Amino acid sequence: MVQAYVFIQAAMGKPSAVAEALRGLPEVKSAVVVTGPYDVIALIEAPDLQALGRVITEKIQTIEGVERTLTSLVTGI
Amino acid sequence: MVQAYVFIQAAMGKPSAVAEALRGLPEVKSAVVVTGPYDVIALIEAPDLQALGRVITEKIQTIEGVERTLTSLVTGI
Amino acid sequence: MVQAYVFIQAAMGKPSAVAEALRGLPEVKSAVVVTGPYDVIALIEAPDLQALGRVITEKIQTIEGVERTLTSLVTGI
Amino acid sequence: MVQAYVFIQAAMGKPSAVAEALRGLPEVKSAVVVTGPYDVIALIEAPDLQALGRVITEKIQTIEGVERTLTSLVTGI
Amino acid sequence: MVQAYVFIQAAMGKPSAVAEALRGLPEVKSAVVVTGPYDVIALIEAPDLQALGRVITEKIQTIEGVERTLTSLVTGI
Amino acid sequence: MVQAYVFIQAAMGKPSAVAEALRGLPEVKSAVVVTGPYDVIALIEAPDLQALGRVITEKIQTIEGVERTLTSLVTGI
Amino acid sequence: MVQAYVFIQAAMGKPSAVAEALRGLPEVKSAVVVTGPYDVIALIEAPDLQALGRVITEKIQTIEGVERTLTSLVTGI
Amino acid sequence: MVQAYVFIQAAMGKPSAVAEALRGLPEVKSAVVVTGPYDVIALIEAPDLQALGRVITEKIQTIEGVERTLTSLVTGI
Amino acid sequence: MVQAYVFIQAAMGKPSAVAEALRGLPEVKSAVVVTGPYDVIALIEAPDLQALGRVITEKIQTIEGVERTLTSLVTGI
Amino acid sequence: MVQAYVFIQAAMGKPSAVAEALRGLPEVKSAVVVTGPYDVIALIEAPDLQALGRVITEKIQTIEGVERTLTSLVTGI
Lengths: 77, 77, 77, 77, 77, 77, 77, 77, 77, 77
Fold this sequence. Notes:
Chains A, B, C, D, E, F, G, H, I, J: InterPro entries: Dimeric_a/b-barrel, Tscrpt_reg_AsnC/Lrp_C. Chains A, B, C, D, E, F, G, H, I, J: This is Transcriptional regulators. Chain A contains 2 helices and 4 strands; from the N terminus they run E-H-E-E-H-E. Chain A is an alpha+beta fold. Chain A has a single domain, classed as Lrp/AsnC effector binding domain/regulation of amino acid metabolism (RAM) domain (Alpha-Beta Plaits). In chain A, strands 2-3-1-4 form a 4-stranded antiparallel beta sheet. In chain A, a hairpin with a 6-residue loop joins strand 2 and strand 3. The longest helix of chain A is centred in the last third of the chain and has 12 residues, at 49-60. The two termini of chain A are 14 Å apart. At the A-G interface, helix 2 and strand 4 of A face loops of G.
């Protein structure tokens, strides 16, 4: 299992809608609206890096209101 | 009660209108047009973080002329 | 209860030691070494913002190897 | 009377001490430790811009633990 | 009297037109096209900060070709 | 097997020495001195993310002349 | 033969399609979707710098979904 | 005679066309497509700073495909 | 005669001393402590670009407390 | 033959000395002190990329006063 944090810049007024859409995805363990330079932070899990890559590019990046994503892999040390 | 500063980048020519709209919100304690890298700085208050989150994403970010917001929570130490 | 993500830039060679020291703090729910622009990401919890502020400035920032911290509050919406 | 926000980057572990030292200055109306890209935000007041400039460069910038300051003038519109 | 430098990013091909429009404003003491990260730098004067704020947001930011402005107040020390 | 690109900022005059030291590590598939914002780019491989994390923080970051590292995981899609 | 890494920022949802289109080009030795500040990293080869320049500006930059490219030349030391 | 380097960010797929258009201008001594954070670098010459300013804002910035320019004056020491 | 604005980042507590030292140089027409991302802004004049270059690198950059300078040439259009 | 521009950030007061040292190297076709975000720009030539890499890392980066270098390869299209 691989884990990653995904930092999301959302369109104005959209952070809650984006967080809610994220929470509808099985791979998303948590998705919260936050303060600071990012609008939403999601913790996601996938069987391997390939599956993780697809979740980010095909599911998360296509949610309406998502403007930019930055992914940080959990190395587990 | 939680407090936060919200730094706002406004569209060209809109800072005063944005500040005025902000001052119409009950949660906004002060909203001023400033010099420097941001255009408007608001000091807001809400009963808890959830309410604060909603004020920012549903009220402030939807004001016409607001292009980007960055929120700094007051930790009170 | 308030939650926050703390993004940490660590000195070269120190991320694991920083993550380990973080995991020794009761307020730290998780602390992992990550890839990307930050070295370590911690999820912390405290009774209120004041307590949260003290954990960050008095406990986390004083761990040997911590060079910069950036805190993102979970707004819970 | 002129007002300004001063955003302060503090040395690791020093934000509380810096905020406390700031609150000891008569020109400082408020000084709080915050989350986000800055560590401390002060609201200051002075009779005119000259006095304001001196407070920042001769009083605030010489507080132990202050690494960088960025000042935003309140224009009052 | 308060003075400020206003750094202006202009649309491609527009710096001279922007500088010329600026020079038509009574509050503008000088406005020149420059090299470096900004396109035009204006030195402006106003009776007080409120008037200065209005010149920037209502007159300068509404000149055709002005994309971003950054204002630096002269503290006079 | 997981793969990652590690972008390295090296001290002045050290890129070749850093690249050479990297090529001495079994996990490093290639390490080259490059032009552009980074000085050296390494392609590394490890059995899993934990092993990858250790290579980066305990082996690569402790090479003399390595000032900063930024890791990009290959997702394989 | 000259080699270069090309870091690519892709439109939301497009990294996989961009990587796939890249892998269709004979000059592209590898093209992978990655985590971190870039979306796709390609390793390309060309007989000389002129040919390399044309591959980047006429083939890679015209792939649908490519928003920005940054090229790092392999110096081979 | 004054000399300046002009760093140009070009639209995707346009660097060669921009460089070619530049080479058609008498004031342009050289214009080449480059790797790194800029797309094209031109070396230009003009009788004085005023003429130089006009070449940049009226000729170079109006070439189709030029998105941003940054000018560095040669001081000749 | 050539004119330039020099933006100066000063060490903490030093802006006034730097501005004062600058005002002692014949080539400096004005030097003021300012708010915003820079600490001091000087307007300088020299017979030609060579002389201007020497004023910046040999006189201004060697003033105690000057950490970084960024020069913007006045093109006069 | 390969050509590259090398943008150099120099220590305060050192640009002229750095430019002079550069002009002493056979591979350096021109080296000038400039205004803007860099201090010195050199145009260098070498038989191939390997030789170019060595000139930058072993000769240019070891000149006293050179703090950072950024290299842009001329692609010749």
